[in-house]
Amino acid sequence: MRILKLRPAAQHALAMSVPPIGLKAVITPQGLQSLVGELSARGYTVIGPTVREGAIVYEEVTGVEALPRGWTDRQDAASYRLERRSDSALFGYAVGPHSWKRFLHPPVERLWQMGREAPFVDPPPASPKFAFLGVRPCELHAIAIQDRVLLGGAYRDAGYERRRRESVIIAVNCSEAGGTCFCVSMGSGPSVERGFDLALTELIREPHEFLVQTGSALGEELLAWIPQREAEPEDVAAAVAVSAATASRMGRTLETEGLKALLQDNPEHPRWDDVAQRCLTCGNCTMVCPTCFCTTVEDHTDLAAGLAVRERKWDSCFTLEFSYVHGGSVRKQARSRYRQWMTHKLANWIDQFGTSGCVGCGRCITWCPAAIDITAEAAAIRATAPARQVGVDGRD
Amino acid sequence: MEGIERILLEQPLFRGLEARIGALIAGCARNVRFRSGEEIFREADPADEFYLLRQGRVALEIIEAGRAPARFSTLGPGAILGASWLVPPYRWTFDARALEPIRAIGIDARCLRAKCEADHDLGYELLKRVAAALIQRLHATRLQMLDVYGNRPA
Amino acid sequence: MSAAVGSDPLVPQPYRVTRALRETADTVTLDLEPHRGEVPQFAPGQFNMLYAFGVGEIAISLSGDPADRKRFIHTVRAVGAVSSAIAAMPAGSTVGLRGPFGVAWPLAVAEGADVLLIAGGLGLAPLRPAIHQLIVQRERFRRIIVLVGMRRPEEILYRTQLEQWREQAGIEIEVTVDRSDPAWRGHVGVVPSLIPGLGLDGAATSALICGPEIMMRFTANALRECGVAVERTYVSMERSMKCAVGSCGHCQFGPYFVCKDGPVMRLDRIARLLALREI
After folding, report:
1. Given the DSSP bridges, would you call strands A198-203 and A168-173 parallel, antiparallel or unpaired?
2. Is residue C265 one of the residues assigned to a domain?
3. Which range marks the domain in which residue C204 is found?
4. Least CA distance to A332: which residue of chain B?
5. Which of C11, C277, C279 has its CB closest to that of A112?
6. How confident is the model at residue B153 (pLDDT cuts 50, 70, 90)?
7. Do B71 and C188 touch (CB under 8 A)?
8. Chain A residues 109-168 with CB within 8 Å of chain B
9. Where along chain A do its domains lie?
């Protein structure tokens, strides 16, 4: 296996190559509604943010009225709540517990079904074509990271490839930095660069408008259907200012310089014992993380009918069973499992796929019931790790 | 004695040994041979002579009433045969049997123990080397004891 | 490293058990022939995922001759629900098979020099295909040495074949057991203890080791003491295996996926990981 060198954070390459940011226009919320209408008319299931049970989640939305107008979120370690804004921004919040992986790399997927005598494979049930409305820059990077995992090797996941190819991405540049966000540290935000069809920046002023940029031929085509006006230099400047302001208000930072070596060189650091005292190994972090991709397979049988079915399901390296080999689990202690997750996410991932596995979305911090903060853990190890010794096995 | 001193210093156990020390040990040494199948020593017998194997293999066994002897080790050329000569009560712990025609150097344990008491440099040099060989054998024995090829429970 | 042309590596293909040979009390060797077509080509060291209908799937090394295009041979030890089900399959039954997967033993790096294969217990199964291939290409190597460690004489895997090879194939084979009675005329003791007596030219030796992890570590140490370079020592690793194609994450060992960066791995790359607990 090649050990890939760490690329500068600013150069996260995306797997799908699309033309760079193109045409610019300005639309209104009504224009956005007509975009949703056009997508529905073309047979897309539009998935977007909506408020449900005190959180902003991703669900099918039929129009702009379903979006969290006038809502924002207050996030901190082990803390998430919604608050009313004083304006009617449609995207005035960060990210919630859902990520787009629940649609592209679904929690449960049937791989095959077969009969005992003459094994046959049912074609997988057709999944709808998705239009994702409100994809954040960190999420675009997360999708690109999963592209590399699921499509970048010798084996290409057919279901993921099809869903990915058929999906439309309407990105949104963030106007709010979440309390646990650190996309700036990871080079994954707060504005988009590539990998989308259309990108919106919400301009929350009178009039309430969106700067729209195209990122693909399909994006250009869709934009042609939306009532719009030309983008003036002031509109572009306002959008740039939104992103700059967001970038300056990140809730967290993660120092990535030397982070890979720091974690790979310190598997016996006492901090792992420290975090193990707090970690419940509940696996919330892996469920909400937009790049975590681990799955397991479950075989079900209907022996009376002579049918066997194999399903693939999300799994978590925090479970004891995850590392089970004959004789027992390799990672018995919570300490070992937390170390595995964090070292994989921030260090081993770079050897495996060429980039960090983390996009700085902060979900693992917000949704950890024990308030464990990956940025704080990294800082703690860095503060007390011994000086680096020369690597002995060619990792660098 | 010149011949046996040279042979002695060629043994892995004594490689690099200072000539003076080698001569002292050689003074207690002789060439020995055993026939295939011959008993070399028996459990509880006085450990008067130990061996550095030069050719052929020896089996270490332990006897139990009503069962075939349990063979737990075979030793080959380069190995030191016998450890109980080093410590009281200076009696063999196991049985040793030649599996093939054996050529070895036999070293008179009483002779060597006496010389070691008189000359501590000799004693230290000898013990350093014997300890290394025995520690390696201890490690191997522990690995053997783990029964890694067996069906081990979790 | 591909499965049969045209088949999805996630879908088991039906194979018929044409022979089930009991090796020991808990170990069986199965000959498997595909219901349709030829077996895919495999390289020594690779593995298949074997599926017992209604029970589950496990990773088992290929242990037959790579030149045999009629069948796959697998030696299975019954230690859990799935392996017990597969080991119990009589001739005529059908098993599902996905594969072959994984990185193979790098025999070519040893050409022109000595190659040492060291097998512990069931670790002989993934090395047997390498022995087949080395014998076919005998003239490309100097010494070919096979060291085998087993629990007891009656549990020696492929015993007759080992004896045949020793007689006919011009390769050196030494077998040792952990314990025996005097009926056994061979070595008794752990496999690493056979190494000093080989008179190895360490600088010109490549070593392939397969067996329980403890045995591989001890053996690697003994090899290093004889001057065999860690860059020319290869081990076969084992971890939890589900998808076998590098996308489920279960088989990770440090940054490596055992299913696609292994199971055969070069020792210098993983020596540090082997020394870490619960990694």
Report:
1. parallel
2. no
3. 107-236
4. B154
5. C11
6. low
7. yes
8. none
9. 9-247, 259-384
Query: What DSSP assignment string belongs to C48-92?
Result: EEEEETTTEEEEEE--S-TT--S-EEEEEE--SHHHHHHHTPPTT
With CA atoms as reference, the chain B residue closest to A328 would be B154
Q: Report the C-alpha gap between A379 and A292 in whole angstroms.
A: 22
Answer for the pair C207, C232: CB distance below 8 angstroms, yes or no.
yes
CATH number at residue C197: 3.40.50.80
Q: pLDDT digits over C178-213, tens only? A: 999 889 989 999 999 999 999 999 999 999 999 998
pLDDT at A118 over 80: no
Q: What is the mean pLDDT of residues A23-46?
A: 96
| Distance (Å) from the alpha carbon of B105 to chain C's nearest alpha carbon | 18
Q: Which of C101, C123, C151 is the last residue of a domain?
A: C101
Residue C213, chain A, CB below 8 Å: the answer is no
What digits encode the pLDDT tens for the residues C199-255? 999 999 999 999 998 899 999 999 999 999 999 999 999 999 999 999 999 999 999
Residue C274 included in any domain? no
pLDDT for A13 equals 37
Q: What percent of chain A has pLDDT over 70?
A: 90
Q: What pLDDT score does A327 carry?
A: 78
- Residue B118's SS3 state is helix
**Residue A17 pLDDT exceeds 80:** no
- Range from A1-10, A100-109, B88-97 carrying the lowest mean pLDDT: A1-10
ipTM above 0.90, yes or no: yes
* DSSP track, A52-108: ETTEEEEEE--SGGGS-TTEEEEEETTEEEEEE-SS--SS-S---S--THHHHS-SE
Q: Using a CB-CB distance cutoff of 8 angstroms, which residues of chain C are in contact with residue A301? A: 53-54
In this structure, the answer to whether residues C177 and C218 fall within a common structural domain is: yes
pLDDT at A182 over 90: yes
CB-based contact, B148 to chain A, within 8 Å: no
pLDDT of residue A390: 53
Q: For chain B, list the contacting chains (3+ Cβ pairs, <8 Å).
A: A, C
pLDDT reported for residue C2: 31
Instruction: Find the closest chain A residue to B154 by CA distance.
Output: A327
The b-or-e profile of A31-42 (16+ CB within 10 A means b, else e) is bbbbbbbbbbee
Residues A370-381 as b/e (b if ≥16 CB within 10 A, e otherwise) read eebbbbebbbbb
pLDDT digit string (tens) for A307-354? 888 999 999 999 999 999 987 899 999 999 999 999 999 999 999 999
Whether C13 and chain A come into contact, CB under 8 Å, resolves to yes
For residue B154, the chain A residues in CB contact (below 8 A) are 327-328
- pLDDT, mean of residues A217-222: 95
Q: What total of structural domains would you count in chain C?
A: 2
Domain positions in chain B are 2-110+117-143
What are the tens digits of pLDDT across the range C73-94?
Answer: 999 999 999 999 999 999 999 9
CA distance C151 to chain B (A): 6
Q: Which of C65, C80, C101 is the last residue of a domain?
A: C101
**CB-CB neighbors (< 8 A) of A328 in chain B:** 154
Return the residue matching tokens 């892995």.
B12
Pick the closest to residue A168 from A37, A39, A291, A26 (CA basis): A39
Are the C-beta atoms of C98 and C42 separated by less than 8 Å? no
Q: Which residue spans within chain B are E strands per DSSP? A: 29-34, 39-41, 49-55, 58-64, 67-75, 80-81, 95-98, 102-108
Partners of C27 on chain A (C-beta within 8 Å) are: none
CATH topology of domain B2-110+117-143: Jelly Rolls (2.60.120)
Partners of C79 on chain B (C-beta within 8 Å) are 151
Within 8 A of A321 by CB-CB distance, chain B residues are none
B67 touches chain A (CB under 8 A): no
Instruction: Please judge whether C212 and B77 are an interchain contact, meaning their C-beta atoms are less than 8 angstroms apart.
Output: no
This prediction's pTM: 0.90
